[in-house]
Amino acid sequence: MELRQLQYAVMLAEERNFSRAAEKLHLAQPSLSQQIIKLEKELGVSLFERRPGDILLTFAGKRFIDQASKIIDQVELLKKEMQDVANTNLGQLVIGSLPITGAHILPPALPLFQQEFPGVELVLVEETTSNLEVLTSRGQTDISLLSMPISNPELEIIPLLEEEIVLAVPPGHFLAEQGIVSLAECQQEAFIFLKKGQGFREISEGLCRQAGFEPKVVFESTNIETVQSLVAAGMGVAFIPQMVTRTRRAHVPVYLSICDLVATRTLVIAYKKGRYLSKAATSFISMLKSVVEKGDF
Amino acid sequence: MELRQLQYAVMLAEERNFSRAAEKLHLAQPSLSQQIIKLEKELGVSLFERRPGDILLTFAGKRFIDQASKIIDQVELLKKEMQDVANTNLGQLVIGSLPITGAHILPPALPLFQQEFPGVELVLVEETTSNLEVLTSRGQTDISLLSMPISNPELEIIPLLEEEIVLAVPPGHFLAEQGIVSLAECQQEAFIFLKKGQGFREISEGLCRQAGFEPKVVFESTNIETVQSLVAAGMGVAFIPQMVTRTRRAHVPVYLSICDLVATRTLVIAYKKGRYLSKAATSFISMLKSVVEKGDF
DNA sequence: TAAACCTTATAGGTTTTTCCTATAGTGAAA
DNA sequence: TTTCACTATAGGAAAAACCTATAAGGTTTA
Q1: Inter-chain Cβ pairs, chain A and chain B, closer than 8 A
Q2: Which of B165, B166, B169, B167 is nearest to B233 (CA)?
Q3: Which of A73, A101, A271, B255 has the fewest other C-beta atoms within 10 Å?
Q4: Are the CB atoms for B143 and B155 separated by under 8 Å?
Q5: H or E stretch including A10?
């Protein structure tokens, strides 16, 4: 029994005439006859009572057509739903992002996306870099906004943005007036770092290593905003990505450019290698890129 | 899109492995691959995410499998229902019958039938002979219990029973003591007939015509029981089929055999010519026959 | 690192199914 | 009786599904 046969039977029940039904089905009349006969044979009951001039439904036929119509409706609904997914009128896009970074770079892109694909549910997963690498390589996010370096070889990487890393020092710090700083001058400073496992912690350690010293870490936090507040309160100095720097009056550290080495971090979009990216996902990526190009964040 | 493909996809979603799923479907693995690819192409979305060692459902795939499973379930249910009809665990049998006649001859057959086919709904339609002829020729009854003669050429006829017609006279009537009667003696009698349109009315008129006179009809009723009561009350004489005669004490006429001509009526089962008779219908007919043969009524 | 292995996709040909045209068969209408 | 309208059957062409063999891609094992 195939859907084709259900459709044929339903049409025949509507038209009560093999020739007309066949025509509506874009089929030759004998083909319809054959299929109906085959169907009846398979079911073991006759569905239609052929009589000259008219065709009636048997008891079994009534039941059959009732149910078959419902089934066909459901199949049509299913097709339509799949089409909607294909046209992205419907779907889900799971985006992984670093907590603070995402809060800065995603907001301009999200409303653009929602406007173009109102049927797509956006799910944000905020995790540390290392957790996101795992989630993304397992397909638990469609795409993720991460920072380099990325160790997981399963991931395809699209560069998005390279941004400066600055050194935050307390107001009144002896370096505060310079505007720029050479990291080599900071060997003795008390550093405030993010906790291990966060991507930016590794970057920070890398910078010190490049400058040739092991930093003295006096405090660790899971949250870069806490780090900044601690710096502003005079607890130490810290590396801060440009986009996270504060512009308010109070609780704001002084930000110094680093002049003796390239202090940047690269934000990227990552997704599982070989994974089919939905139209929604590719669209979101290009929206992010254009937002970044225009500096709209 | 065909049911086969839905089944393949559902099985693949269950097994998460093309080779295993193909095996369970009694199919070579490439055939399954081909069908799934074809399905995905037709829908315009990929349903399965193939990755080494495992197969995951995409967003669209989840929705698809959900719905497809339901559809397949419904199709199975439909098949089962049709099988039930075929095995007559389910169905309907519409039996037309003459009001009084049916009340005598059907009762022994009905419980036998219900016992063998408890799932079949029995519908009794009681109508006059002429109405039943039309209903049956239109297929509004499956089979009908009628009396000859039948004018409608659309009907196939199976003889069931030939029964005597007797003449009912009031107790104390001058013929009452004879036990038998020659119709020729009854030319002057007052006759009570059924109303026109009832088959037995025609039979009654035919008997008088055969005996060579036009009966004097003093009363007409739609109900043969009323006719008998009227005879018992002394209003006249009437023809009564054997099986309808009363055996009680009160309100009982005297029944006389007719000796000067063959006074019988033939009860038959009639159905639309060329109509497929369900297993339920043929079974019912043979039950009726065996009831009649045994004289169980 | 290569070899073995497991899994899915592709190629090419065979079988099965569906479909078509032509036509027979069958009641109903003219 | 002939014609007409309709469905079923026959036989062959077209399409679909299926098969075997094998490629291609990864992972695991030696």
Answers
A1: 99
A2: B169
A3: A73
A4: no
A5: helix A3-15
Identity (one letter) of the amino acid at B204?
S
Which residue is closest to B75 within chain A, CA to CA?
A71
Tell me the one-letter amino acid at B75: V
Nucleotide nearest to B18 (CA to C1'): C8
Residues 123-142 of B with CB under 8 A from A: 139
**H-helix segments, A148-197:** none
DSSP designation for B179 = S
**Cα separation, A103 vs B202, whole angstroms:** 97
So what's the pLDDT on residue A280?
84
Residue A282 Rama label (left phi>0; alpha psi -120 to 50; beta): alpha
Contact A55, B18 (CB under 8 A): no
**Per-residue model confidence (pLDDT) at position A249:** 67
CA distance B285 to B142: 11
CB of A41 within 8 Å of a chain B CB? The answer is no
Q: What are phi and psi of A109, to 5 degrees?
A: -80, -35
Q: Average the pLDDT over B272-281 and give the result.
A: 76
- Given a contact cutoff of 8 angstroms between Cβ atoms, the answer to whether A260 and A186 are in contact is no
Q: Is pLDDT of B168 > 90? A: no
Phi, psi of B27 (to 5 degrees): -145, 150
Nearest to residue B270, comparing CAs of B163, B165, B88, B139?
Answer: B139
Q: Would you say B105 and B269 are in contact if contact means Cβ atoms under 8 Å apart?
A: no
Q: How far is the CA of A20 from the C1' of D3 (A)?
A: 21
First to last CA, chain A: 58
Using 50, 70 and 90 to split pLDDT, how confident is the model at B31?
very high
- Asked if residue B19 keeps its beta carbon closer than 7 A to nucleic acid strand C, the reply is yes
**Which chain A residues contact residue B282 at CB under 8 A?**
none
For residue A147, what is the enclosing H or E element? Answer: strand A143-147
Whether B59 and A4 lie within 8 Å, measured CB to CB:
no
**Greatest mean pLDDT range, A225-234, A254-263, B3-12, B251-260:** B3-12
Instruction: Provide φ and ψ at B108, rounded to 5°.
Output: -70, -30
- Chain A residues with beta carbon closer than 8 angstroms to that of B86: 43-45, 60
Tens-digit pLDDT profile for residues B105-140: 888 888 888 888 888 888 888 888 888 888 887 777
What is the structure's pLDDT at B7?
94
Query: In angstroms, how far is the first alpha carbon of chain B from the final one?
Result: 58
Q: What distance in Å separates the CA atoms of residue A103 and residue A126, rounded to the nearest whole number?
A: 10
In chain A, which stretches have pLDDT less than 70?
A: 249-250, 274-276, 296-297
DSSP state of A250: T
The band of B148, judged by pLDDT with boundaries at 50, 70 and 90, is confident
d(C-alpha A142, C-alpha A136), whole Å: 7
Residue B57: CB partners within 8 Å, gap ≥ 6?
A: B13, B47, B48, B49, B65
With CB atoms and an 8 Å threshold, state whether A67 touches B78. Answer: yes
Q: Distance between CA atoms of A244 and A168, rounded to whole angstroms?
A: 11
